[in-house]
Amino acid sequence: MRSMYQLAPIAVATLVASNAHGQSLCDLIPAATVKTTLTLTGNLTATPNREGGNGCDYKLDGALAIAVTADSSDASGMVGMMFDRRLKQLPTGALLVPHIGDAAYYVAKPGQNIAKDHTNTYTQQSLVFRAKGKVVSFIVMTPGSGVPKDALLTLGTLTASKPIDSLKDSK
Fold first, then answer.
1. What DSSP state is assigned to residue 82?
2. Mind listing the pLDDT tens digit for each residue in 99-156?
3. Mean pLDDT of 51-66
4. Residue scoring higher pLDDT (50 or 93)
5. Which long-range contacts (CB under 8 A, 24 or more apart) does 24-27 make?
6. DSSP-assigned beta bridge partners for residue 125
7. CA-CA distance, 110 to 44, in Å (whole number)?
8. Count of alpha carbons within 13 Å of 90, Cβ hemisphere only?
């Protein structure tokens, strides 16, 4: 049985997927689901990202607005090859994560700066997994120490359970 993880506030994802019938990540994981799942407060919007794919840009309104971009690509191509290499040579600080898709890894990079915010440092957290012939990458930028790792893992588990194989090619 796959374990589910508790979620904490903040935004979502970069999706890398492909091959299908016109759906985007916004269709599979709408803003309302992201907001509820991550227990976000404020207005979360989702806009399809057609620049290079059929992903989704999620944006949380507020003083520290966080925007996350979703893109798409097929796991059988270059993205899949790069993912396989990363699994063999994990980035510094990365951890293999069981029970999300076929294979997954997580990495956090604290102390990041954002050009629009000179007063805070951010933590960039990434979850990258392969499932249903796709490679999915979630990148979350949050002020301070970030969200609990389990929040991002839960989002990955939820996404892996969706028909991500129905996402159309990113041409």
1. H
2. 999 999 999 999 988 877 788 888 888 888 999 998 888 887 877 787 788 888 888 8
3. 69
4. 93
5. 24/48, 24/49, 24/54, 24/55, 24/56, 24/70, 24/167, 25/54, 25/55, 25/56, 25/70, 25/72, 25/167, 26/56, 26/70
6. 108, 140
7. 24
8. 16
What are the tokens at 107? 């990495």
In angstroms, rounded to a whole number, what is the distance separating the alpha carbons of residues 143 and 10?
10
Q: What angle do CA 46, 170, 98 make, to 5 degrees?
A: 75
Tokens standing for residue 135: 């490679």
Q: What value does the CA radius of gyration of the chain take, rounded to a whole number of Å?
A: 15
Query: What residues contact 161, with CB distance under 8 A and at least 6 apart?
Result: none
Task: In whole angstroms, give the CA distance from residue 58 to residue 56.
Answer: 6
What domains appear along the chain, each with residue ranges and CATH number? Answer: 25-166 (2.60.120)
Phi, psi dihedral angles at 36 (to 5 degrees): -65, -45
For the question of whether the overall pTM of this predicted structure is more than 0.85, the answer is: no
